[in-house]
Amino acid sequence: MVYSTKEGYRFRVRCANADSVNLLGDFNDWSTTSHPMTPTEDGAWELALDPGAGPHRFAYFVLLAKRDGDGERIDALASVVLQEDVHGSSPMRRMAS
User: Fold this and answer.
1) Judging by beta carbons within 10 Å of its beta carbon (0-12, 13-18, 19+), is residue 91 exposed, middle or buried?
2) 46-76: string of b/e by CB count within 10 Å (b at 16+)?
3) Are the beta carbons of 75 and 60 closer than 8 angstroms?
4) What pLDDT is recorded for position 15?
5) Residue 76 — pLDDT band, cuts 50, 70, 90?
């Protein structure tokens, strides 16, 4: 979910079993590390951000630890999932500003 605030936006995604969640989008060149989110007590992850003038496309990069190595997960609420390159699927959401 994305909430509009006076300072910009609050991004929130529910991923109770995640080890880390990062926000990526066209505003940070799709970096999977530049915008880490903070876990909340209810199993969600949040980040407050002003991405600048939009509209923007964004996704959540979810990392889960598994017995045989780390695993990436697609955001279950993504409105579009695109296959882009060797990095695999890129779930995206649109955000208007």
Assistant:
1) buried
2) bbebebeeeebbbbbbbeeeeeeeeeebebe
3) yes
4) 83
5) low
**Residue 89 CB neighbour total at 10 angstroms:** 14
Domains of the chain listed by start with CATH number:
2-95 (2.60.40.10)
Amino acid sitting at position 11: F
Does the pLDDT value for residue 68 go beyond 60? Answer: no
What's the CA angle centered on 8, arms 82 and 37, to 5 degrees? 60
The C-alpha angle with vertex 31 and arms to 86 and 63, in degrees rounded to 5, equals 75
pTM: 0.69
Tell me the pLDDT tens digit for each residue of 46-61. Answer: 999 887 777 778 888 8
